[in-house]
Amino acid sequence: MGETIEMFEELPVQHPPHSISQSGLGAVWTQHKAQLIAKYIYLFTIITRHGAYIDGFAGPKRKELQDSWSAELVINTEPRRLREIFLCDIDPAKISALNSLVAQQGDQAERHYQVLSGDFNECIVQILGSGRIKDKTATFCLIDQFSLQCHWKTLEAIAGHKPEGSKKIEIFYFLGTSWLHRTLKGLTKNTDRADQWWGNGDWNELVTDSGEKIAIRLAERFRDELGYKYVKPYPIYHSEGGTGKVMFHMIHASDHPAAHELMARAHRNVTQAPELAEQLELELSTLTY
Ligand SMILES: C[S@@+](CC[C@H](N)C(=O)[O-])C[C@H]1O[C@@H](n2cnc3c(N)ncnc32)[C@H](O)[C@@H]1O
Question: Which domains does the chain have, with CATH numbers?
Fold first, then answer.
């Protein structure tokens, strides 16, 4: 495993999505997004042996579709190594669903659960100010927004929460590539929305870029402006097997050298036969966080 880490450290910090499709990683599709996140958390906590999960847009999109709700799958992932769970949503109906999900958990004495009702751009202040995410708390933050809801300043707060030298809170960020152009072009008066999302007025330049270029540009901003060491945009295709139109990208930003390898492994796990838990424990438990 030591060799693998060295190999990953030598890779360029950010790769264009094309290399991902070539390596087969493009074969992730919408229905598998939640399973991919839960599997990644499983692998992440094999290394960290603890952890915090922040889900900024946590309400179920399609509650009736089994195994499609990220928060539910992450919370129920065994072994239950996550110690801190923060779930936020702006819609009161989704808050009820989140509250009943938490109420079903039998481990509330061992785990801290917090459901936050409101705009994630405001709730993040409460989450980061809670004192529960310390310098060494391995933390994963899912930003599964509809389109432009997460403000750039929120990402800055998340990335800047821990002091220099600590591993930053990991981010897994939804970028609605296939409808972004339409959304941005449709903003005739309410351009504040896009300004807050992108952090400045430069989003105007995106309307002529391809979805893939926008994903790369945003990934570069995660690296250069937010300071993440390892950033990778994952294209999510419409159809199984990495075919059809790219519907959206998930941008993964981490300071851990094994992050890309874990995500690749999570992907293989979701789409193919699961690896033996004992084998994974053996291979990954030598890594440190
Ligand atoms: C794409 S859905 C999330 C899907 C969910 N992660 C899943 O696995 O099913 C987006 C969610 O964000 C919520 N939302 C929209 N704007 C928000 C905001 N400003 N702050 C917090 N939640 C918001 C919506 O109510 C919706 O539940």
Answer: 2-284 (3.40.50)
Q: How far away, in angstroms, is 147 Cα from ligand 1 center?
A: 10
Helix (H, G, I), strand (E, B) or coil at 196: helix
Query: Among 31, 36, 89, which is best to mutate for testing ligand 1, by the most ligand atoms less than 8 A from CB?
Result: 89
* Exposure string for 86-112, b = 16+ CB within 10 A, e = fewer: bbbbbeeebbebbeebbeeeeeeeebe
User: What's the token pair of residue 160?
Assistant: 């800047």
pTM over 0.85: yes
Ligand 1 pocket, residue 27 CB under 6 Å: no
- Helix H or strand E segment including 206: none
pLDDT one-digit tens code per residue, 212-221: 899 999 999 9
Reference 259, options 223, 226, 222, 232; nearest CA is: 232
